[in-house]
Amino acid sequence: MGRTVSLTIDDRTVTATAGERLLWVALDNGIYIPHLCAIKEADPAASCRLCFVEVEGCPRPVTACTEPVRDGMVVRTRSPQIDRLVATGFELLMSVHRLDCAHCPKNRRCELQKIAARRKLKLRPGRLAVIDRNLPVDESHPLYNYDPNKCVLCGRCVWVCRQLARAGVLGFAWRGFERRVTTFEGRPLGEWDCSACGLCVEACPVGALALKEAAR
Ligand code: FES
Question: Which atom of ligand 1 is nearest to the CA of 49?
Fold first, then answer.
């Protein structure tokens, strides 16, 4: 058991174990920080860039999912600079996310909706052009569908498929704008010897991987 430390987040004093990641300490204490890519049990990928906070003494904002807590730390989850960074990161994500909430199985349980509501952000980006990648939806699996047009590349499904299900069906392919979650050689999910454990569907924060209507 590690040493107990005391820190301040948004003027609230909380205790934690030294070295714990700030994101989880904040969330465990009911302090919301936007996040998409973090998994408590995994090393942080820090790819979504939504969990920025200010830490007294640090010259620049830091990502809460990578920042270990220390005794005496003073953290702010909101400031004009933080709000700008989060809004820009969110807008970038939403500019390539196919928005179809009314027909999305994740409607009302979607992390994007939650972030927008908590930070008073619009789901439709105002400043950026919306790009629909128009990628084919994979409906080949008997239990779930995969819509890459909704994927935010958080990598949660890839991690659970590898580390928890030990299946390794899902992975990342390509780079930059072309980057996406897919299977080896892009073969349809239904062709894989997948146990249909459903962990990837559970892990997806946005409804890119979702149970078919008949399986819900
Ligand atoms: S949750 Fe920290 S960068 Fe995604």
Answer: 3
What ligand 1 atom has the least distance to the C-alpha of 64? 2
In whole angstroms, what is the distance from residue 189 CA to residue 155 CA?
Answer: 17
Nearest atom, ligand 1, residue 34 CA? 1
Task: Note the helical H segments in the chain.
Answer: 22-28, 80-94, 111-118, 156-159, 199-203
Cβ within 8 Å of residue 35, ≥6 positions away: 23, 27, 48, 50, 51, 64, 65
How far apart, in whole angstroms, are the C-alpha atoms of residue 204 and residue 187? 20
Integer CA distances (angstroms), 155 to 43, 48, 72, 129, in order:
12, 10, 33, 24
* pTM listed for this prediction: 0.94
> Which residue out of 25, 50, 153 has the highest number of ligand 1 atoms within 8 Å of its CB and is therefore the one to mutate?
50
Domains of the chain: 4-78 (3.10.20.740), 92-215 (3.30.70.20)
For 153, the token pair is: 């590349």
Using most ligand atoms within 8 A of CB, pick from 21, 25, 37 the residue to mutate for ligand 1: 37
Q: In this predicted model, what pLDDT tens digit does every residue of 15-68 receive, in sequence order?
A: 999 999 999 999 999 999 999 999 999 999 999 999 999 999 999 999 999 999
